[in-house]
Write a structure and sequence with these properties.
- The protein has 2 helices and 2 strands; from the N terminus they run H-H-E-E.
- Strands 1-2 form a two-stranded antiparallel sheet.
- The chain starts with a helix and ends in a 7-residue tail after the last strand.
């Protein structure tokens, strides 16, 4: 019976070695996880968040630049339109016949279609000389 006890003793030693190897394997696995995988996950998450923030800021800057450009174009158009109206007011004389007035106003409508909806020309006495709609038809 001594050999059975020795066999059991060697089996228990082998089981102890296997358990200790698993324990060392688990320790190595957890140390690998803690020392390399978790920092990589943290850095990756940080970089993704930083990338989203940078992209959002770039979109905002692009939209702001585009809005400024559109505002400049609108301002230039309105300034040009204002100059045309002032030129029209200085060119119109109360003594002009109605066909000439209609031609001048029609030119203004063509240059500013569809933004100009209607225009009324009034003489210095307050009488309406011409009232023209955006479609080019004189209204009376």
């Amino acid at each position: 019976m001594g050999w059975v006890q020795r066999l059991r003793g060697s089996v228990s030693l082998l089981q102890g070695d296997v358990l200790s190897r698993r324990s060392i394997g688990n320790r190595l696995l957890w140390s690998y996880l803690v020392s390399s995988t978790l920092p990589l996950l943290l850095v990756g998450t940080l970089l993704i968040a930083l990338g989203f923030r940078t992209q959002r800021d770039n979109v905002y800057d692009s939209q702001a630049t585009q809005a400024v450009g559109i505002a400049r174009e609108i301002s230039a158009y309105l300034s040009s339109f204002d100059v045309q109206i002032l030129r029209l007011s200085s060119d119109l004389q109360p003594s002009l016949p109605e066909p000439d007035l209609t031609a001048v106003v029609s030119d203004l409508f063509r240059a500013n279609a569809p933004n100009l909806q209607g225009l009324a020309i009034i003489d210095p006495q307050g009488r309406e000389m011409l009232d023209q709609a955006g479609d080019g038809n004189a209204v009376r």
